[in-house]
Write a structure and sequence with these properties.
This protein has eleven helices and eight strands. By secondary structure, the protein is α/β, with parallel strands linked by helices. Strands 3-2-1-4-5-6-7-8 form an eight-stranded mixed beta sheet, sandwiched between helices. The termini are far apart.
Length: 292
């Protein structure tokens, strides 16, 4: 089945949605950022624009490439604006019913050939796809965070996902410079099965005085070769997001290593969510999600 990827929509303008929109616009696609309010949409556009302009400043994009990508951005609060999109990527709240209802609405708007991608890694792709009358075109595509910087995307098929949808999804992801790995439709996929317990262990190490946040981050980047330490990464992801993902995995797998440590609960209660609130494990003057 021939796919038209000329226009891409990202539903949800939060941390992950803005990151995915950055990837799509930078990859040369007209990119619609959709959310429920104009304020959220504009915040998402500002986040993407800020990242792209910073990429130009750092020499990662030419000035022409940066401005071309920015010109591809379109804001929307109406799902009907997504009618001509070849790929629609949902990055909304992690709730099966919310995602099912969204795909149910999209069925009456987009073409039957439009790919529906869900960015979940904790919920069942099969369960989410059940909301669509065409579950064969629903694919799990989990972008590693931060999406504009990390190359990997996990691809998972639901029970009824068609081969053509998987192939077309991989083609799209490769066209925006991503490397894909195929995984089963299981809680956490590959990355979060490893990442969440590891992040929890780093937080517990900090709680227990094994090191400071700075020394643990330095140990991880200096000895393990990670591009950033766990606490810098958690501040970008958001402590609230980490808490939600960890709790969902714990609820499904019932393994203590997935349960978020008490420090996470205290930070979320205090509103210290990371870069987006100006304070998490570190403090930030620049609250742009992908700032330095």
């Amino acid at each position: 089945m021939t796919q038209n990827f000329k226009s891409v929509a990202v539903i949800g303008a939060g941390t992950m949605g803005s990151g995915i929109a950055t990837v799509a616009a930078r990859g040369g696609y007209q990119t619609i950022i959709n959310d429920v309010t104009e304020e959220r949409v504009q915040r998402g556009i500002d986040t993407v624009t800020g990242f792209l302009r910073k990429s130009v400043k750092l020499g990662r994009l030419s000035a022409e490439q940066g401005e071309t990508a920015i010109s591809q951005l379109v804001g929307s609060t109406e799902l009907k604006d997504l009618a001509d999109c070849g790929v629609v990527i949902e990055a909304v709240f992690e709730d099966v019913k919310v995602k099912q209802e969204l795909f149910r609405e999209l069925d009456g708007i987009v073409s039957d050939r439009t790919l529906l991608h869900t960015n979940t890694s904790t919920l069942s792709v099969t369960g989410i796809a059940a909301g669509s009358r065409l579950p064969e075109r629903v694919v799990g595509t989990h972008y590693c965070n931060p999406a504009p910087l990390m190359k990997l995307v996990e691809v998972a098929a639901g029970r009824h996902t068609a081969d053509w949808a998987l192939e077309a999804s991989r083609d799209f992801l490769e066209s925006v410079g991503k490397t894909t790995v195929t995984t089963k439709d299981r809680p956490g996929f590959i990355v979060n099965r490893f990442l969440i317990p590891w992040e929890n262990n780093c937080i517990r190490a900090l709680e227990n005085g094994l090191g400071t946040k700075e020394s643990i981050d330095l140990a991880v980047t200096g000895a393990l070769g990670h591009p950033m330490g766990p606490f810098r990464l958690l501040d970008i992801i958001g402590l609230d997001i980490h808490q939600q993902v960890a709790l969902r995995l714990y609820e499904q797998l019932r393994e203590p290593r997935f349960a978020p440590p008490p420090m996470v609960d205290r930070m979320v209660a205090a509103g210290d969510l990371g870069r987006k609130t100006g304070r998490g494990f570190y403090t930030y003057d620049d609250t742009r999600l992908f700032g330095s």
